[in-house]
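Q: Structure for this?
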Amino acid sequence: MTTAYIYDAIRTPRGKGKKNGSLHEITALSLATQQLEALRERNNLDTSKVDDVILGCVHQVKGQGADIARSAVLTANWDETCAGLSINRFCASALEAVNIAAAKVMSGMSDMVVGGGVECMSRIPMGSDGGAMGVDPSIAFDHYIVPQGISADLIATKWGYTRDDCDAYAVESQKRTARSWDEGRFKKSIVPVKDQMGVNILSKDEHMRPNTDMQSLGSLNPSFAAMGTMMPGFDFTAIQKYPELESINHVHHAGNSSGIVDGCSLVLVGSEEAGKAQGLKPRARIRAFAEIGTEPTIMLTGPEAVARKTLKKAGMVVSDIDLWEINEAFASVVLRAMEGLGVDHSIMNVNGGAIAMGHPLGATGAMIIGTMVDELERSGKKTALITLCVGGGMGSAIIIERV
Amino acid sequence: MKHFTLKTDKDGIALITFDSPKRSMNVLSQDVIDEIIAWTKTITEDEKIKGAVITSGKDAFCAGANLEELGGKFESIFSEIAQDEQKGKAKLFAMAFRLNAAFRAFELCGKPVAAAINGLALGGGFELTLACHARFAASDNPKLRLGFPEVMVGLLPGAGGTQRVPRMIGLMNAAPLLLQAKKIKAKEALSMGLVNAVVPQAELIDAAKTWVLENPKAKQPWDQDRFRFPGGDPWTPKGFPMFAGAPAMVRKESYGNYPAMPNILKAIYEGSQVPMDAALRIETRYFCQLLLSPKTRNMIRSLFISKQAIDKGAARPASQKPGKIKKIGVIGAGFMGAGVTYVSAMAGIDVVLIDRDMEGAEKGKTLTETEQAKRVKRGKQTQEKMDEILARITPTTDYSLLFDVDLIIEAVFENSELKAKITKMGEEVISKNTVFGSNTSTIPITDLAKASSRPENFIGIHFFSPVHKMMLVEIIKGEKTSDYAISRALDFVTRIRKTPIVVEDTRGFYANRCVMRYIGEGYNMLSEGVKPALIEQGARMAGMPVGPLSLQDEVALDLGYKILQQTKKDLGKQYTPHKMDPILTAMVEKYDRLGRKNGKGFYDYNGREKSLWPELGQFAVNGLLKNQPSADEVRDRILYAQAIEAARTMAEGIIHNPREADLGSIFGWGFAPYTGGAISFIDMTGLAKFVKRADALRDTYGDQFEVPSLLRDLAKSGKTMYGKFNKPKYTKGQLEKMLEADVVKIANAMGIDAKLSDLKADTVAKILAKQ
């Protein structure tokens, strides 16, 4: 089997996913176009040698619909022989895009493929694509489907993570993110977003609140208590799946959950020969990847399960991984994954995460792969495992090794 | 036409009057559907007819489909489905779709059709009016209600109800009607937008005719191009959260135990995305799916067919004729006596209410006063009616006033000597034919009857608390109780519109014996280290209305404690301790946690809120289990413990009829109604499977799961409890004496295809053959 390498990884800064967010006035197509242009320029890429651009995107409607990857390939003036594919594995879409890119290369059917993702949550809010999962009683009723926030609170209740535990984690995430920016740890991969005139409109993640402390978080109201206990009462659905719980402890709020943001990310994947042919130097080797399905009501316990599955595929154990990256969708997700895997916080999400920087759903997976490529090089460490929890009860993961 | 008349007036408006001969209610039987198809053809094709108004010739408009006929018709298709699934199901669909197709045909006839709803319209009756282009409801018929009772027997409104109602008023407003069987009055229907106007009966038909004349091109909103689903369909920003919330809201109440509820949601969700014709087909498919569900068939059998029969006094011994109870004496004006007084006075019975002193007797009347005052305040009762009801109650201390009562209900404290004294005092006054009923819950009737000078007229009439809310009444036969006494007790219970079951004399009778198993299993699990929340949730998931620990709190722990002490004393060395004993003892003696009544029991009570007492883990003898059982395991323990006890009572001959045992289980202590009752649950599980599972439970958890040998025998021979016990009820002579309509009803209920037009003798022969 061919070995797949990562040659480059870039991302946009993340803009607040609101009408006053800096990227609200930039289209998703433009974000992806600018990223593809930058990737080509940075690597002096002959895009006719790139087989495919795979972009994760959760809400493939309106400006993100109709295969945005192909649209971006054309608008970025990449060679028209490069195809485009848009995919959706919810929050892990971009990581999945990299995994598929790797799989194409490893199978020998492609030589060089871009994986990444794009999501403009300020323009196309969550739920915009409808979907049977939440509304068709055949799945929603029969399979105890609840919104993710309820699942996150369910995790906290089941394993006893208190509001303070989650808030403390969030404070640390903000701290680590701030330090990373201060020390320029994201410098290598950040590509500022330009406006319609070509002027930089966003150069730095704008969702961060570096001064967050326990007091400031303490004043926030739980986000999912009303929908859980009152209308329509999703807690009761969750409890019927977990009847040993008397009630659900609603610990998550805007400050210890991932932020809603806009952003785009790309990872360039290729074989050794393809890289050589373009004069590129590999930065990391892809050792293994996997995906998994888990219990859909609690939904967000996929990271531990898929991490174990990926380690097994790689012939590795937990202690073989130097750095861990688990998307901070909700504080309890990471707390549970750390506890379940026995991974210390000191090697988990070392540069902060989505609680501080935000989680542009379809783009985050490739962003945090890039974070790890940079961090392995900075710290001189060898291996990293990157994973995300996924709606519907899934997980996707990848193990990379610095070369 | 037999069921309808059609008269066309000078304006060309056909007045179609639904008035089935020899029926007190209009129902939608198959021959009625035939006639709907026929008059639809007439109004469509007759050029002189410009439009139509549909009304009823009876006080009620239409009570819906004929469930018994429906059940019978479809029963025959089930065997066809077993042979050829595709063909059989296609046939089932075709039969079930007839009503939908008939309604749709006049909806699309091209001429305006209006409904003049002069009275009650339920289920298919209501659906008939919804297929009309306009509805006018009578303002002055106090019995007029509109609604869909289908969900109560495990069905869905299958003649367009799940499609037309949401298309008229949106998902959220339709939900209480379709999913909770909420019945509404004319005014409410008007404010919801389900009827066009509410007018006095005298003007009803004119109002409908005027509308027809003014709207010659009437077309339903959903048949127009610009139709938008009110409140939004699932793919609109407004509709999406509604449709996303609905499953959670339904699950919260139903625990997923009632297949009709998700099927209603599915029919609405899927139907909302397609035109009406496709939507109606989808609805019928989900309707048929329910007809094929054993849960639905059990629910129809118990909650509709059995209940109707038993509420009419089906348990009456063959030798007895129904009689009337006009006046009763209630001795003991405590909570139970007050309740019996209230329901009796409500039913038009005069009550002599006796207590030791006048103050006590008067106090017993206040329940009726406060409950009636509430009803008057809510507009459910007139002050005049309330005064009438109150006037029926005579509080007194004077036993001589009992001289002309038809029946005595004794409801004093559970004390044998006191009861004996009162029996004697009562019998001195009452006539020889007056039956003396004791509302005891614990003392054997045969023992109490020893104080009676005419034990053949002494009987147990066991009410459940609170009397005005609990439907069941156990009628308990003492050793010497006569058929006449049973019959009089039935006269009374049917008059107050409760559900009477006849049981033999045993400690705890039927319901309390079984419910003790339920509570006991809660204690067992607590003692074994099952998490209290799992015990309670598992019970709710099993379909019980409240968890066993909750129920114990409601009953009060000190009551259980007293019974425990008494039983220990009575049995002496023969007493075998139970897992509940140390828990109950500690709760009462050490912690003074008596239940809801003192604000602390297994739960802590804080106003309307309650939460499990956090210290319950101490009662787990070996600590909380590390591996907690699954909810399915808890559910099985809870249902099996009760069902096995119910089977024991049948095996012991305490209760004779599975229909009564089923109804007793549902209405006596809330046994999972979706099963059709404790005995139906055993049959539905299948005897062999039930015994196997019970044996496994016994091996793991103890002898409470030991099944009576009766069940083993049935399992071996492949029979069911209903097959064994629901003996042929009707002799040839009985059937011949009955009205032909009733004979046809019985035949249809048995799955025999019989019509009123058949020869009665033939139908009788068919019934006898089937028995």
